[in-house]
Specification:
Structural class: alpha+beta
Strand order of the largest sheet: 18-17-19-20-26-25-24-22
Strand content: 25-35%
Number of helices: 10
CATH superfamily of the largest domain: Class I glutamine amidotransferase (GATase) domain
Number of domains: 5
Number of strands: 36
Helix content: 10-25%
CATH topology of the largest domain: Rossmann fold
CATH architecture of the largest domain: 3-Layer(aba) Sandwich
CATH class of the largest domain: Alpha Beta
């Protein structure tokens, strides 16, 4: 505590003024006329007694008024230590790193919780009227609390729930978002605070750092790791031919910060099935790596079993010690390719271009397990083991096989029929007419017809635009009807790709071949995205099956048909349901709640009977491997120097306004007492 202008205390000498005035007033004796001397003495004594009490109170109030005013002029203050800012209005954006490395524990709490506590401390230190924004730096970076003068809104956003630190670091984008938020503000100066562990993998691009107009502070959260970090780099499951009815799981474990270990590192690898340890093995890390193979029972039929591969070790970060895998068929789309004109090792083979295109299809877009058979072998294949059947220039199936294909589609399977010289209209219409996208009128030559995007093809990707230059020399004549969706069309209006829902399944009919016999489609850049789009459309909810998803990444789901829904169930028990839109061409829904590590299940069901929804696919959210490297990096450098963690700032907080308020209160009280005295005298 101190005084800004201590010389003002000389004004306390003015307190003698009310004393002198009071003394002068005491010498003025009142004139009292009474009949007797005794009564005069009694009245005089009583009058002096009342005046002495009242005047002393007035005297005290007048002295207090002068003393308070003098103290206010001296500007007294108390010292306050601020961990951020200077105590004045500011436009503040706080960036919190919520990437996986921030889930490391330091003391009793995780680094991300310490960052949250620091952000709340900064908000509390800002004066009323300051603008605050909160940005999270886990990929994709997003705004948790938009810039606002309502500081309580930012506090509520931080207190609304736990910050799930599972994502990949995206500090560059987070800083860009923070600066965009600050540009909307009206208060200056602008201050930017970044809270992160600044691990080596989270290096900032110097180009995104503001050059002027913004005061930037970087604060490293938590101390450097004191232990090495072990993590599961990869885990793959495959059937083991040497062990009937067993599945082999190959596990590759790695170690970061191995220099912190005092002795060779050892750990235990476990595989958990249905809450029980099904297999385990001890491993020793050599040159930063350890590998082992574990064996577990193989699921029966199409049954899918979730397995957790866990690394049991006392290390710096526990979140990356476990990954999930799916044993069975639910982790990929089961595609059955039927070759109607097999010519192995030849460009004339019906599936020559298809198989090469599928090998280029990113697993992140569509995870596939492909089985290829010829038309004769199709008679003996178990169709129930597949999700989508693609008939490439295949002759009309026999009546028994046609009935099996019809039942397959009606039960929820996908069927794609591609044109060719073996596709005859009459047999196809007679045997598969109930599940074909439309009836076939035959085939005909055409003169280099171009393709156009159909009116109901919102689900097709932008890469389909590469089909505009396709030239067709021959085509199937698909009969238009109001019950089908025309996804692609020829420039004369006839369908080039038609689709229709049948029962629980979906059927597509392509008017050209998948090789170069009818058109140059396989030679165009749109062939690969078209093939992927056709498979996703035919598979429905099953198309979302993917091996791995990065935390925070969105997953595209198939748009449910009218009266149906798609539901995603996460490993943390949360559910999100998507129902059919008002229009069939509405874009496919996107699931963004991938903020939990583990297996997500996709169910497809009838809205009228939601309890009987069927599991159609799974995808797995695994920890990002880059986040396992906890090696501390350098604090980012700014133009002209390095911005490090700011030291606490000491400011003077004056309480002069409260003193002046006290002066006014004392003056008012003194006036009330003088008024009451005047009324009493009258």
């Amino acid at each position: 505590m101190g005084l800004e202008t201590p010389l003002a205390l000389l004004g306390l000498l003015a307190v003698v003024i009310p004393l002198v005035v009071h003394r002068m007033r005491n010498r003025e004796l009142p004139h009292v006329v009474l009949p007797t001397f005794a009564l005069l003495s009694r009245a005089l004594s009583k009058s002096q007694s009342k005046r002495a009490f009242t005047d002393l109170l007035l005297l005290f109030l007048r002295i207090a008024v002068i003393a308070s005013a003098v103290l206010a002029l001296a500007t007294p203050y108390v010292r306050s230590h601020l961990r951020f800012g200077d105590g004045k209005l500011a436009n503040v954006a706080i960036v919190i790193d919520d990437s996986l490395s921030m889930s490391r524990k330091a003391g009793k709490s995780t680094l991300v919780e310490q960052a949250r506590a620091r952000a709340l401390e900064v908000i509390a230190s800002l004066p009323e009227g300051s603008e605050v924004a909160i940005i999270l730096a886990g990929k994709p970076a997003r705004v948790l609390a938009p810039l606002s003068r309502d500081r309580s809104a930012a506090v509520r956003a931080l207190d609304s729930g736990a910050l799930t630190a599972v994502r990949v670091n995206d500090l560059d984008r987070a800083l860009d978002l923070a600066l965009r938020e600050q540009h909307r503000g009206l208060v200056s100066p602008r201050r930017l605070l970044v809270l992160s562990d600044f691990a080596r993998h989270a290096a900032l691009d110097p180009q995104v750092l503001p050059q002027d107009g913004v005061s930037v502070s970087f604060e490293r959260v938590g101390p450097a790791p004191s232990k090495p970090n072990l993590f599961v780099a990869e885990a793959h499951a495959s059937e083991d031919p040497s062990r009937p009815n067993e599945t082999s799981i190959a596990v590759d474990a790695r170690v970061a910060l191995s220099g912190l270990a005092e002795r060779p590192l050892e750990a235990r690898v476990e595989v958990e099935l249905n809450g029980k340890i099904a297999s385990s093995a001890n491993v020793t890390f050599e040159r930063g790596a350890a590998r082992t193979v574990l064996h577990v029972p193989t699921p029966l039929g199409k049954q899918a079993t979730q397995a957790q591969v866990r690394l049991v070790a006392d290390d710096a970060l526990q979140a990356d010690n476990q990954v999930s895998i799916v044993l069975g068929d639910a982790d990929a789309l089961q595609l059955l390719l039927v070759n109607g004109d097999p010519q192995p090792a030849s460009r004339g083979d019906e599936l020559y271009y298809v198989t090469r295109a599928l090998s280029l299809l990113p697993a992140g877009q569509l995870a596939l397990r492909v089985q290829t058979v010829d038309a004769l072998s199709l008679e003996h294949v178990d169709l129930s083991a597949s999700d989508v059947i693609l008939l490439a220039n295949v002759a009309a199936p026999s009546p028994p096989l046609a009935r099996r294909i019809t039942e397959f589609v009606q039960a929820g399977g996908g069927l794609i029929v591609a044109a060719g010289s073996h596709v005859e209209a009459a047999p196809y219409n007679a045997r598969l007419g109930s599940v074909l996208a439309s009836h076939i009128r035959g085939s005909a030559r055409c003169d280099d017809l171009r393709w156009v995007i159909g009116s109901r093809s919102a689900a097709l990707p932008e890469g389909i635009l590469g089909l505009r230059e396709v030239r067709s020399r021959e085509r199937l004549l698909i009969e238009p009807n109001p019950h089908m969706d025309t996804l692609l069309a020829f420039e004369d209006g006839l369908p080039a790709l038609a689709a229709r829902n049948e029962g629980e399944g979906r059927s597509l009919l392509l008017a050209t071949t998948l090789d170069a016999d009818y058109s140059d489609l396989p030679l165009r850049p749109g062939f690969l995205p078209l093939l992927g789009a056709m498979l996703r459309d035919a598979a429905g909810a099953t198309a979302a099956a993917r091996s791995h998803v990065t935390p925070g990444e969105s997953v595209t789901l198939p748009a449910p048909r009218a009266g149906h829904f798609v539901e995603v169930r996460g490993p943390d028990g949360r559910k999100q349901r998507f129902t059919a839109g008002a229009q069939a061409e509405e874009a496919a829904p996107r699931f963004t709640g991938t903020d939990a590590l583990g297996v997500f299940e996709i169910f497809y069901g009838d809205a009228a009977n939601p309890d009987h929804a069927k599991l159609r696919a799974t995808f797995i959210v695994d920890p990002a491997r880059d986040e396992s490297d906890l090696t501390p990096g350098a604090v980012p450098a700014l133009m002209g120097g390095t911005a490090a963690s700011p030291e606490p700032v000491t400011i003077h907080v004056p309480f002069t306004p409260w003193l002046w308020l006290g002066v006014f209160a004392l003056v008012a009280l003194e006036g009330v007492l003088r008024t009451r005295k005047r009324w009493a005298a009258q």
